[in-house]
């Protein structure tokens, strides 16, 4: 069987002796969207950071395409095709949309190729091309961040709280694109605190509680029950 593109095996990690991940197992395959859910402080962002080589593990293993890359830094992770789009979008607010895109020419793509990539997926960005990124709506900034990430031709895309502060319709549109990105063969791990939009398109879901994965399975009825228990304390 083809190994997952991204795999965390029994990963433990923390901050100055405070344990944030207590034995996390997660895998994401090419073409798959995995939703990583859970309440505040559960360890979702730390999992993303560990997966992207931004935060070190205390123990356990990280594998890309079956290859052990534990201890790899963010630079080598990026070289290996892992793209982390952090919460808060990571665009340059004082640069125009076009300049934000042009910065991605370090990938070897031309300005035109990168603009095509952005404007074909998100036509609204072409209307905003000369505006500074800081004046875009939250959804448009997220579109820009997403296309900047795609310019690196990632094999694995790590998205943190894509829906944060956005209107439901905007979130739906963004997730349609995320589903399309996965269909193109990318392995996508999406962190969300609130689940509904991502669950409509996720292939698989994991729920974290206090640094551990409590549910790992399809995004169906049993997951929704698990989430209801978690957030509402009901059964
Ligand atoms: P949120 O949705 O609030 O971001 P999360 O599920 O992403 O939550 P993490 O941000 O991964 O959770 O946090 C996991 C644990 O690690 C929490 O107890 C948090 O307080 C702690 N933590 C996170 N970042 C740091 C940090 N920079 N320094 C110290 N502790 C941290």
UniProtKB/TrEMBL annotation:
Domain ABC transporter: residue ranges: 6-235
Superkingdom, natural source: Bacteria
GO molecular function: ATP binding
UniProt keyword Plastid present: no
Keywords recorded for this protein, A-Z: Amino-acid transport, ATP-binding, Nucleotide-binding, Transport
UniProt xrefs under SUPFAM superfamilies: P-loop containing nucleoside triphosphate hydrolases
Pfam families named among the record's database cross-references: ABC_tran
Record family assignment: Belongs to the ABC transporter superfamily.
Full protein name: ABC transporter ATP-binding protein
């Amino acid at each position: 069987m083809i190994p997952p593109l991204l795999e965390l095996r029994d990963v433990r990690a923390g901050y100055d002796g405070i344990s944030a991940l207590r034995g996390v197992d997660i895998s994401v395959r090419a073409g798959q969207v995995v939703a990583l859910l859970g309440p505040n402080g559960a360890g979702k962002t730390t999992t993303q950071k560990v997966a992207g080589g931004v935060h070190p593990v205390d123990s356990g293993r990280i594998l890309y395409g079956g290859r052990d890359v534990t201890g790899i830094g963010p630079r080598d992770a990026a070289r290996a095709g892992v793209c982390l789009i952090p919460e808060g979008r990571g665009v340059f607010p004082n640069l125009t949309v076009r300049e934000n895109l042009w910065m991605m020419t370090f990938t070897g793509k031309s300005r035109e190729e990168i603009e095509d990539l952005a404007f074909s997926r998100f036509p609204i960005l072409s209307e905003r091309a000369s505006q500074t990124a800081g004046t875009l709506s939250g959804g448009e900034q997220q579109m820009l961040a997403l296309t900047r990430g795609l310019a690196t031709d990632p094999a694995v895309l790590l998205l943190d709280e894509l829906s944060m502060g956005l209107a439901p319709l905007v979130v739906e549109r963004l997730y349609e694109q995320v589903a399309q990105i996965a269909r193109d063969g990318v392995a996508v791990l999406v962190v969300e605190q609130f689940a509904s939009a991502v669950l409509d398109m996720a292939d698989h879901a994991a729920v974290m509680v206090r640094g551990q994965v409590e549910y790992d399975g399809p995004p169906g009825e049993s997951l929704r029950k698990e989430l209801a228990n978690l957030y509402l304390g009901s059964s």
